[in-house]
Amino acid sequence: MYNFSLHFNYNSMKAFILENTGAPENLQLTTLPLPDYNDNEVLIQVKAISINPVDAKTRNGNGMYGRLKEIQPLILGWDISGIVTAVGEKVTAFKKGDAVFGMVNFPGHGKAYAEYVSAPEDQLALKPANISFEAAAAATLAALTAWQAIVHHAKVQPDDTVLIHAASGGVGHFAVQIAKHLGAYVIGTSSAKNRDFVLGLGADRHLDYNTERFEETVSDVDFVLDTIGGNNIDRSLEVIRKQGTLISIPSGLNEQVTEKARSKSINGSFMLVASNGDDMKSLATLLENGSIKAHVSKTYPFEQMAQAHHDIETGRTVGKIVITL
Hints:
The protein is an alpha/beta fold. The chain is 27% helix and 28% strand.
């Protein structure tokens, strides 16, 4: 049981809001009332927040901004871990003092950049006692993306050959571990400096995307997880076996590429992750037994949210960037 009483005697909280799209400095730290929570929701005192590329894209006016632009105040972010401080009348899965984590209301208004967040109970899981709040927050949107792509969409089986692009990144480093857990043969791409990291995750083979063209050395792949987009999609289609699967995360498959995939008897699709408490519980089990681990490369205090956004926009993040409160 966690002590939250010292933090819950107030009716206001700090939060970052976005009034105008643009640079990271457009995120404004302000004071807001504590969020309301419905009968099926819990109120969470946030301990850690994970930062994702979609956060920065949305701040810039892309990403999820089209869905959220009419909301005021607009609070970005979806990935949290923290302590339950209050529960709705119909909540049965959690109680005050529970440590929880999850991706909240994605692709809607998650409102994670705040000291307190309300979240539906069916989007959360109990945080394993053997991992930190930082590691738990890191294992939300990125881990869910990898899990839903590999388990639900591609249905990866033992001995499948899986190619994971940007294998040292947020989604990629979870995807390597999940695919290995399922018994796949995993090939991961990254820069040479991250070779040891990718192999350390369990990848069977590493390809340096700066010096090797994967389509010249890889073939008969069952599943490709593309986290890069652009011409990487077309190149990936060259290495997939008939009836294999390509899932693209960042850019979607335009009609031309979808048609190319179909003409090669390949299943090609775009996937958008969605909040799901059952999937969070599956990830919690893997985190608890050590089958997967979240790699947190940098942590920042809440007040340095803008710097965290600058970092995520370099596109060179190894693992995850986390904000601590």
